Each structure stands twice: as structure tokens, then as C-alpha cells.
């Protein structure tokens, strides 16, 4: 019995195929609502409080998004939150979506840019993504929702940050958000190094790249993330992290008292630590049952959890790290990167 379980079913997938996607790419499914109802019933005996989501990739992607939102509310003890996560695909297509988000009390919504038009289309994985994001910005503003821009930065798009700065200025986002009492926020970050993102390892930023970041975007980033320096945002070199971890013989259990689970369209269950890859699979709801899945989670039973609990960090770093690399990482992201490599 867990205090609180959150379970997220990948019922519709995602219209995008982002190159930075830490969840990774998978085919889109079309599961009926009965699948979500059955999943909630299967988990309910094992949680004092249950929260159910009908997505873990793109929120509100299905045309029945309002019905699914209501259903998730009915199946949950703790009502799901919408957070600042919205579908720009739907914002560009569905005139009812912006007003609906506003009716839920959404006041800020996150959108992702990678630079200019071609680079954003390339990194989002489909044509017209940039144009749709601009459309989404207008719809959000019409509904008094402040767009918040995040930009994943690597060596390939570093030179396009000035275009992002110019776009923010041309669209007058600061003043237009202020007009309805919201701050406009923008932040840069390196992204994790798992899922699709791991393929960008070779072009992760290195310390000298931080000096090329436009000062205005650096200032916005530090203000939003409440950090003192870009180094705190982008992390330390792999060389420094490797040296630190090589002196650290600790292991860890990753099981938590209030877990969040991703359930894919074939009902395989994964903890939400990183991409739902085979090494993290806990079992299958239909073939194994929820009790066995939860026991695997609690006992660090997936191959990746077992590796983290039994392989000291010093061995992980020695076997998988590059002690000369100047690429920048956050410490936790770097450990996850090492762990995923070791499991493969
Ligand atoms: S990052 Fe989000 S929007 Fe992009 S492919 Fe992954 S789930 Fe879809």
C-alpha cells in the first residue's frame, strides 16, 4: 500500500518527435476510455490516494480532451493538475482550447523553441512547428495566459539564440503579458541526456559556449530559475563530475513513497525517472498484475533500479564516464546518463 500513486497512461501519444525528448519516441496509440478506467481500478487497491492522467507525452492531444479531463478527475482522489503544460498543436487548430485552458485557471503555458523557424521545425520533428508555436502564442495571449519560452541549448543551436531574443522583442511579449498582470518568462537549459536527448551528447555545450549566450537571455534565465550563474544552470564538466563520482562508493534505492508511473499503450509500467526504456520496465499490468509491478518497484526490481542499488557510483563512472570530456551536466542527469549506458 502506497500513500499516493500517480499513474499516467499513454493513450494518444504525441504529434511531435522532438530531438530533445527525454521520454523518447514511440508509436501513437488510440486507447479507449475503458482502458483508463480499468487501469485506475487495477491500481486503486494499492494506493490511499490515486491520481490518474490520460497522457504522459502530449496533454490534450485527443479530440476528447475535455471528456478525458473530467474522467481523470472522477478516477482520481487528488485532482490532476494541468500545470503549465499545453498542446501547441491543439492551440493552433482548436478555437475552443485556449478558452478551455483559461477556464481551468491556467495562467502560464510553456512553449519550446530551438532558434529560428528551420531549427525549431527540425528539432520539434515536423514541418510548421515554428509557425504553430507563433499561432499558439497569440491564442494564449488572447486568453490572458502568459507564454513561457524554454530553449534547449546545444552547440548546434547556440548561434540562433539571438533570433529567439529578437522574436521576444518583436512580439513585445513582456508588455503584452504585463497588460494582464503576468510576468513573461524565458529560460535556457541544456536538457537531460536520456531518451532522444542522449543522441545529442556529442553537441552538449562546454564551458566556453556559455560566454556566447546573449546577456539578455542569460539574465532572464537566472531570474526565472533563481540561479546566480549560468554555470549553475548548465552544470559542471563531465571531467569534474567523473572525478567526483570516482571517489563516491555510494549506491541508492530509487523507490519513493509516492511514486509516479508511466504506463505505455501495451500496459508496460515504468517509473517516471527517465525514458521508459526496457531496463526500467517493472512488468505489465495485464500479464503480471499491479501487485507484482508495485513489488518490483518497491524492491528496486527493474534492471536499472537494481543497477543503481548494487553498482557503486565510482564503478559506474569508471566504466561509463569520459574523464576528459568538457560537456556540461547537472549531477543527477549525469548519473542517469551513466546508469542508462551501463544498463544497455
Ligand atoms: S518532448 Fe514532449 S512534445 Fe516533444 S516529442 Fe517528447 S513528448 Fe512530444
Quick recap of the structure?
With 344 residues, the protein is of the alpha/beta class. Helix content is 41%, strand content 14%.
Keywords:
344 residues, alpha/beta, 3 domains, 5-stranded mixed beta sheet, 3-stranded parallel beta sheet, 17 helices, 14% strand, globular, binds iron/sulfur cluster
Description of the molecule:
With 344 residues, the protein is of the alpha/beta class. The protein has three domains: 1-81 and 256-310, no CATH class; 83-234, no CATH class; 236-251 and 312-344, no CATH class. Helices cover 41% and strands 14% of the residues. The protein has 17 helices and ten strands. The protein has helices spanning 33-43, 65-75, 88-91, 97-103, 117-124, 129-142, 161-170, 173-178, 207-210, 215-225, 230-234, 238-245, 285-288, 290-298, 303-310, 313-320, 331-343, and strands at residues 2-9, 47-53, 108-113, 146-152, 185-189, 236-237, 260-263, 268-271, 283-284, 328-329. A five-stranded mixed β-sheet has the order 2-1-7-8-9. Strand 7 (260-263) and strand 8 form a beta hairpin. The mean pLDDT is 97. The site of iron/sulfur cluster has 8 residues, from loops.
How would you write the strand order of the largest sheet? 2-1-7-8-9
Summed over residues and divided by their number, the pLDDT gives a mean of: 97
Radius of gyration: 21 Å
Shape descriptor reads globular
Element-level helix/strand string: EHEHHHEHHEHHEHHHEHEEEHHHHEH
**Which structural class do the helices and strands define?**
alpha/beta
**In total, how many beta strands?**
10
- Main beta-sheet annotation: 5 strands, mixed
Uncertain parts:
none
Kindly, what is the distance between the CA atoms of the first and last residues, rounded to a whole number of angstroms?
32 Å
Helix content: 40-55%
Strand content: 5-15%
Q: Helical region count?
A: 17
**Number of structurally distinct domains:** 3
Bound molecule types = iron/sulfur cluster
Amino acid at each position: 500500500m502506497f500513500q499516493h500513486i500517480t499513474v499516467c497512461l499513454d493513450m494518444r501519444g504525441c504529434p511531435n518527435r522532438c530531438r530533445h525528448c527525454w521520454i523518447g519516441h514511440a508509436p501513437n496509440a488510440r486507447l479507449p476510455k475503458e482502458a483508463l478506467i480499468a487501469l485506475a481500478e487495477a491500481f486503486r487497491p494499492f494506493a490511499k490516494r490515486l491520481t490518474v492522467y490520460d497522457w504522459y507525452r502530449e496533454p490534450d492531444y485527443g479530440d476528447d480532451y475535455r471528456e478525458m479531463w473530467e474522467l481523470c478527475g472522477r478516477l482520481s482522489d487528488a485532482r490532476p493538475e494541468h500545470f503549465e503544460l499545453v498542446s501547441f498543436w491543439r492551440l493552433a487548430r482548436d478555437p475552443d482550447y485556449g478558452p478551455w485552458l483559461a477556464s481551468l485557471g491556467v495562467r502560464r503555458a510553456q512553449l519550446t523553441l530551438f532558434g529560428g523557424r528551420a531549427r525549431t521545425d527540425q528539432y520539434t520533428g515536423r514541418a510548421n512547428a515554428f509557425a504553430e508555436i507563433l499561432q499558439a502564442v497569440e491564442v494564449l495571449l488572447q486568453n490572458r495566459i502568459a507564454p513561457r519560452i524554454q530553449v534547449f541549448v546545444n552547440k548546434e543551436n547556440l548561434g540562433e539564440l539571438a533570433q529567439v531574443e529578437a522574436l521576444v522583442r518583436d512580439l513585445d511579449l513582456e508588455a503584452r503579458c504585463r497588460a494582464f498582470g503576468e510576468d513573461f518568462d524565458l529560460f535556457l537549459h541544456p536538457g537531460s541526456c536520456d531518451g532522444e536527448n542522449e543522441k545529442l551528447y556529442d553537441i552538449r555545450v562546454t564551458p566556453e559556449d556559455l560566454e556566447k549566450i546573449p546577456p539578455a537571455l542569460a539574465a532572464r534565465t537566472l531570474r526565472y530559475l533563481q540561479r546566480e550563474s549560468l554555470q549553475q544552470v548548465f552544470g559542471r564538466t563531465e571531467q569534474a563530475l567523473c572525478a567526483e563520482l570516482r571517489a563516491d562508493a555510494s549506491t541508492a534505492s530509487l523507490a519513493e513513497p509516492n511514486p509516479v508511473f508511466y504506463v505505455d499503450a501495451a500496459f508496460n509500467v515504468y517509473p517516471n525517472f527517465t525514458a521508459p526504456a526496457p531496463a526500467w520496465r517493472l512488468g505489465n499490468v495485464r500479464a503480471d498484475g499491479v501487485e507484482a509491478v508495485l513489488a518490483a518497484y518497491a524492491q528496486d526490481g527493474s534492471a536499472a533500479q537494481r543497477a543503481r542499488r548494487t553498482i557503486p557510483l565510482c564503478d559506474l563512472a569508471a566504466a561509463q564516464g569520459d574523464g576528459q570530456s568538457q560537456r556540461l551536466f547537472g549531477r543527477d542527469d549525469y548519473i542517469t546518463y551513466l546508469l542508462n549506458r551501463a544498463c544497455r
